[in-house]
Amino acid sequence: xxxxxxxxxxxxxxxxxxxxxxxxxxxxxxxxxxxxxxxxxxxxxxxxxxxxxxxxxxxxxxxxxxxxxxxxxxxxxxxxxxxxxxxxxxxxxxxxxxxxxxxxxxxxxxxxxxxxxxxxxxxxxxxxxxxxxxxxxxxxxxxxxxxxxxxxxxxxxxxxxxxxxxxxxxxxxxxxxxxxxxxxxxxxxxxxxxxxxxxxxxxxxxxxxxxxxxxxxxxxxxxxxxxxxxxxxxxxxxxxxxxxxxxxxxxxxxxxxxxx
Length: 260
Hints:
Blueprint: E1 12-13, H1 16-23, E2 32-36, H2 42-49, E3 54-58, H3 62-72, E4 77-79, E5 96-101, H4 107-116, E6 124-132, H5 133-139, H6 150-158, E7 159-167, E8 172-173, E9 180-187, H7 196-207, H8 215-222, H9 227-231, H10 245-258
Parallel strand pairs: 2-3, 2-5, 3-4, 5-6
Antiparallel strand pairs: 1-8, 6-9, 7-9
């Protein structure tokens, strides 16, 4: 019997209604599918029923990788590695449709890695990912809310994000202590052409003291030059969560112009 490892943040999704809902949300037939953290293969089974062209799964746990091999044999291609050590751009010549019940302890790290590594072309057409509800709430939060922050700004930069549903702890084995949320991410056609490292630097500077006014971090970043704040019509007496997404992308763009 396979037991979930707490150290790897494992909680296996067992609710058939939720599993069916996940695979019905986007086209799978004749597509190349990447599943991250397949666990015991419950979702994998549902994916295979939809007749994909190819299924690649990434599973770090050695025991689970063996279990998946025994269960599915040559129906899937198993990569027994840590997802954080893999460059997904080289997994397929076709765009991947990605499913993931991401390990709770590294879910934001995985998402951030994928966004930061995005170049001119996207290596996926959809990401259908599960997060702790509190993390998902941060990803999809709105300006002026307490959840709005660096993760929101980075996630929404190149991706359109939609909430599919919340998932109760009873849908998993073992039951987590918190609710989960399923999100779908789709590439944007148009987005600000900025360096993600600069976007991370800008948002880090502003949100390190999110209760403080914008004035201090702004002056530090732009050496007290108020021309940019006037150009972008930014009230420096506001707080970081009061600026909308686009303003942070524009600020990063202005920062890059000054330093080019």
